[in-house]
């Protein structure tokens, strides 16, 4: 039977989600825990590949295993939560339709990036300190130009293994929340390093280092070297992944 594992993790301790030789990843430690608890090898397929240091407050991964009752699933979730310390939290384990796929069936993904313009000694691990004056209206004006089905090559890491750099964005907005600037961006898919490159470029717009005309040219030129610097990973969160309700089996 196919299951979706719903979890959250602090990315500071991991070299991203995906297994990599010689590095500790979220996928690796979860598979090791499941193999220990289930007494057989388990292969997890994640809903995405977060970069090193990026966090996820909402993440799904699927795997196949024997049929379990709701009580048995809850028992396994409890064991997994005791297996890890504070850096990984398991929300639940859900039975799915056989064809359900954590990555390919995701209809939308939402990221948030946190910026502070004042020093935050108790939040520094999860926000980017950027003390320069910013024009939020200009940043949102530029962000609105990202919405739609477009080629995001200018904001993608080079030499990635994808067929194309076309993404469909539905939301891109800066807001002031609890003393921070929070950038929320939603799309059907994201490229490697894309959100961090977009944020770095929008901050340059807000600071007056990139004009609106130059921002449009950056989008159109499909050249990563023309866009802004990627901001630190520590302030980026994958905060929502959406799936069709019919994929989840009724209980």
Question: What would you note in describing this structure?
Answer:
This protein has 251 residues and is of the alpha+beta class. Helix content is 24%, strand content 28%. It has helices at 26-38, 70-83, 136-144, 194-206, 212-221; strands at residues 2-9, 45-46, 55-64, 88-95, 108-116, 128-129, 148-151, 166-177, 180-187, 236-242. Strands 1, 2, 3, 4, 5, 6, 7, 8, 9 and 10 form a ten-stranded mixed sheet that branches. Strand 8 and strand 9 form a beta hairpin. Helix 3 packs across helix 4. The protein is globular. The two termini are 14 Å apart.
Task: Record keyword descriptors for this entry.
alpha+beta; ten-stranded mixed β-sheet; 24% helix
Q: Brief overview, please?
A:
This protein is α+β, with helices and mostly antiparallel strands and 251 residues long. The protein is 24% helix and 28% strand.
Topology diagram in text:
Blueprint: E1 2-9, H1 26-38, E2 45-46, E3 55-64, H2 70-83, E4 88-95, E5 108-116, E6 128-129, H3 136-144, E7 148-151, E8 166-177, E9 180-187, H4 194-206, H5 212-221, E10 236-242
Low-confidence stretches at least 5 residues in length (pLDDT < 50)? none
Structural class: alpha+beta
What does the average pLDDT come to?
95
The helix tally amounts to 5
How many beta-strand elements?
A: 10
- Main sheet record: 10 strands, mixed
Radius of gyration: 19 Å
Shape: globular
What is the helix/strand order? Answer: EHEEHEEEHEEEHHE
Strand-residue proportion: 25-35%
End-to-end CA span? 14 Å
Helix content: 10-25%
